[in-house]
Please model this.
Amino acid sequence: MNKQETKKRIEKLRHVINHHRYLYHLLDRQEISDAALDSLKHELKLLEDQFPEFITPDSPTQRVGGAALDKFQKVRHATPMLSLEDVFSEEEFRDWQTRIQKLIPDVRHPEIFGERKFDGLAVSLTYENGIFTRGATRGDGMVGEDITQNLKTIESIPLSLEARDMPAALKKKMPDLEKRVQNGVFEVRGEAIITKRAFEKINKEQIAKGERPYANPRNLAAGSLRQLDPKIAASRALAFFAYDVVTDVGQTFHSEEHDILRILGFRSDPSARVLSTVEDVMAYRAETERERNALMYHIDGIVAQVNDNNLFSGLGVVGKAPRGAVAFKFPPQEAVTRVRAIQAQVGRTGVLTPVAHLEPVNIGGVTISRATLHNMDEIKRLGVKIGDTVIVGRAGDVIPDIRAALKDLRTGKEKSFRMSKRCPVCGGEIAHPAGEVAYRCVNKKCPALKREGLYHFVSRKAFDIEGLGPKTINALLDQSLIQDAADLFDLKEGDLAPLERFGEKSAANVVGAIRIRKEISLSRFLYALGILHVGEETAQTLAKQAVAKLKVKSAKCKIKEIISIFEKMSLDDLQQIEDIGPKVAQSIYSWFHDKHNREFLQKLDRRGILASMPESRIRYQELSGKTFVFTGELKTMSRDEAKEKARALGADVSESVSKKTSYVVAGEKPGSKYDKARELGVPVLTEDNFLSLLT
Ligand code: IVH
Model:
């Protein structure tokens, strides 16, 4: 390639990479693999290294690579970055409406715009002539810090702006939007956030290292963006949701700002919309709260604001908050209570987890009486003692935990917790190897291990045996009806029927539920074994490996064959597998070479258990290459959950219907997407049809 050709190639590469970034980070669509994208980026980097004069500030290579700074520069905001007043109840929300109504008596029931309130860090992004040049934190509202380098690492932030798919009405109102954005300064504000998954992963790592977990996603996002070395921000899986266009480009409504943001390639809340009555606001808030758990990131309420920008600014500011907007927060997910006792609980891997037994307290409608303290380092970090008054928190489905001990409320009678030298269940020895945080019961026959292992075996992500919860497992163990999980497959109705809470019918149901699980996906099977460090994802990886090694390719195989595959794998073979490190490899190797475990597997084999090939392999082929569009309200799940499920099976999800759409899934009250599907002849599925694809 000569220089001119190289320049062209660089431009094309940049365009293609940016296009896939946009698809992936803004539309949640992946058209090429990560590996293919990486290799395009690599080629671009090589060419730019050869001809540095062709590097542009918005090149994808410019996202990372900046050197660490000594300190952040201060930035004065063009207009102050305000905060919001909080309201917590319908009454408080109505009070706010009454207050503003008095100030604008001529406008009856001003339109309200509702959107999710993200739990992250407010940032301002400045574009000059369409190129991202500066990003800043809020700071004290007047002066923030220049964190441009770190913000550039966030892939959902466009490095340059272009207008995409402008609807006709907006084009008419703002014919020169793109020109205005491309010439001069353009400022956008929004929230930098971290995904729940990344938050949990980083906190687990913190705890494993014996370091302080981050108290909330906001702190972690802030902590990541306030690192002087941009490599740290780059490793943190941050995202950006835009919610404000500061620059006047002809918008007169806040709703138009959201349209502008989407057109210019920003991610903005997909649920955001205009609301009219208080009832609408309440319904939107309730809907948002229902969807909350299924979202990939944390939100802590909704933001409601006057949609008409003139009215909004006319209402002015009190203190640091605009009168025209409020944060309508969800009920707090924290409460204060007392620690009655701390007891070590033995988990299925033998690890002793200190658990605080609490005076029961209600958090968001659920009574909590236990909270995990994770490990001894966490107890030390919190400084918590038995008898202390503590702050307990719960987030969604996550196990409640202790966030802080209120030491000023101590009476002097509080007692420190000490980990016992012997297992509280079997009295056996406890190991606490140097350099490890965990204390572990080393007795392989400890009844607690067996019990917890059984709970795990039947749990939702493992064998998923309906009607067989911890209470029934306890009863079965206590009556010596089972010794291990393999015995479950021998149970007869008559064994279960006499147990407490059972009758003939429920006994028959459970026996049926066990029978249908005699055939189970290999990844679930491997996960159910409860091998130390083997979570769902590792189990899937292992299943794929095992399939590759199977001599006869069939849809199902006997446990005997699985045993032989894993028995033959050396430690080195295991370590060669992507995503499996030395610690995990060692654990898998030891598990399959343990005499008791082998006997257990042989027992399962004799019960006729069959493993079906990885779900992803079969299913992926079924749904990959298919594009789904969802419209209307679903009965059994939120739309976000449905999208997640479709994606998990390899499908693409799109927001708009075109000839390329494979299926439109229509819930109740479907919108215009339904009509479009009919018009284009795209197949429309009911919710039930969709569910049947998933099972
Ligand atoms: S509008 C006047 N919209 O909440 C301030 N803020 O408690 C304009 N936040 O500092 C804010 N999601 O960091 C707005 N959709 C959203 C938001 C949002 C999160 C944050 C923002 C602000 C804080 C105020």
